[in-house]
Amino acid sequence: MHKQNTFQKNFIWGAATSSYQIEGAPTAGGKGPSVWDIFSHSPGKIKNNDNGDIACNHYELWPQDITLMKELGINAYRFSISWPRIFPTGIESKPNQSGLDFYSKLVDVLLENNITPFVTLNHWDIPQGLEEIGGWPNREIVNEFVKYSYHTSNHLGDRVKYWITHNEPWCVSYLGYVIGRKPPGLIQNWPKSLAAAHHLMLSHGMAIPEIRSNSDNSEVGITLNLNTAVPASDSKYDEDACRFYDGQFNRLYLNPLYKSEYPDDVFEYLRSRDWISQSDLNFIKDDDLNIISTKTDFLGVNYYSRGVIRNEEIDEKNNHTRNVEIGEKTDFGWEIYPPGIYDLLIRLKNEYSVNNIYITENGCSYGDGPNSEGKIRDTRRIKYFDSHLKELKRSIQDGVQCNGYFAWSLMDNFEWAEGFSQRFGLVWVDFETQERIPKDSYYWYQKFISSNGIEVK
Ligand code: IFM
């Protein structure tokens, strides 16, 4: 078979951001507090006690950010809507016009510049008012999300055609309720973690028809962060730990979506350790799995690294020697493993028959800043993108149906619990002055896009 050296015609080339990470302006236009406003102001939760009050001040500087996108040459921009700009406490019956107007104007100017908007409805910054009535573990939030999705798509659906219900539900469910690194900051609360995951997925399924009813010819999907996991050694212990890791990270979301079932081995593992009881699963009601598996138009995939999994429950001396070599790491400490994106995409095709994928995030954190000439020589980022895009191309040549790629991120921004200490941007941001400087990777991506993926030196 002849293997093409470029990506297919009409391939979508984009960059991504999210509301809390870039917007700032936490009270502008009647916005209510989000869980992230509250969490980031709780002492000790965020590195250096940073918060997103100003972030990249995109709320005011968005016209100049669109100019940066235009010059970069992307034909799509993935951003998220701040739910409490639209429903300040979550429970209002009518949306806040000023919040809708902000995004409406953004969408208009994107379209004027031939940049297709990809809108994420929930990239974690839910109204604090909904957290106060129990957040994602409380089933009531499902209707609130459906209402929010309805009104937002009703307002923007004539112009926005690509909709992502949720970003990375695993981060909300696991990091929020088991590890405590994200709101509400609970630790080892598996019953709430699973209930949160279930209601996120249920609200996704319920929002799909609402969005479609407001947006003709739309594509509606969800974004999952997925990876390829391998056991750190060939011991049974590591294999068991790896199966559980893969279950709670990947299959807990993919199986309900594509197979209308939960992976029982994950629940069994949790029960065997008394981390949940059978009755903790009562949140799963008849018909929920049918709703969750409502056919989507695409799957958004966020890939950064692979998981090399060691069983932490037994002593090193009683386990086999680790025999999986870990490669180079980014400044965040995440292993750089480009073949992982290939393996993951092939798995999605073979095991889940996913037939329309957008890579909604891929990128790396490096601290490189301006040199004495004001240039940002982030060659390691270029290498990261180049190697991952090669693997993406290889997967497409091997039958994966992927129609777009979004670099994470358009610009350096508020990296959640890491504050401003981790920089993922193609554009460098001075958080004191709000100056933006395109990095070398920005110019590299510009060339890559303009040749539709012919290798750029
Ligand atoms: O910055 C985040 C983003 O909000 C979600 N996906 C992973 C990125 C890097 O950590």
Mass-distribution shape: globular
Order of helices and strands: EHHHEHHEHHEHHEEHHHEEHEHEEEH
Beta-strand fraction estimate: 5-15%
Unreliable segments (pLDDT under 50, ≥5 consecutive)? none
Looking at this structure, what is the CATH superfamily?
Answer: Glycosidases
- How many strands in all? 12
Q: Which value, in Å, is the CA radius of gyration?
A: 21 Å
Largest sheet: 8 strands, parallel, barrel
Largest beta sheet: strand ordering: 1-2-3-4-5-7-9-10
**What is the mean predicted local confidence, pLDDT?**
97
Instruction: Kindly name the structural category.
Output: alpha/beta
Under CATH, the topology can be stated as: TIM Barrel
What's the gist of this structure?
The protein has 457 residues and is an alpha/beta fold. Helix content is 40%, strand content 13%. Helix 14 links the parallel strand 9 (357-361) and strand 10 (402-408).
Description:
40% of the residues lie in helices and 13% in strands. The protein has 457 residues and is α/β, with parallel strands linked by helices. It has one domain (3-456): TIM Barrel (Alpha-Beta Barrel), CATH 3.20.20. The strands form 3 sheets. An 8-stranded parallel β-barrel has the order 1-2-3-4-5-7-9-10, surrounded by 6 helices. Strand 9 (357-361), helix 14 and strand 10 (402-408) form a beta-alpha-beta unit. The protein starts with 11 loop residues before the first strand and ends in a 7-residue tail after the last helix. The model has no long low-confidence stretch (mean pLDDT 97).
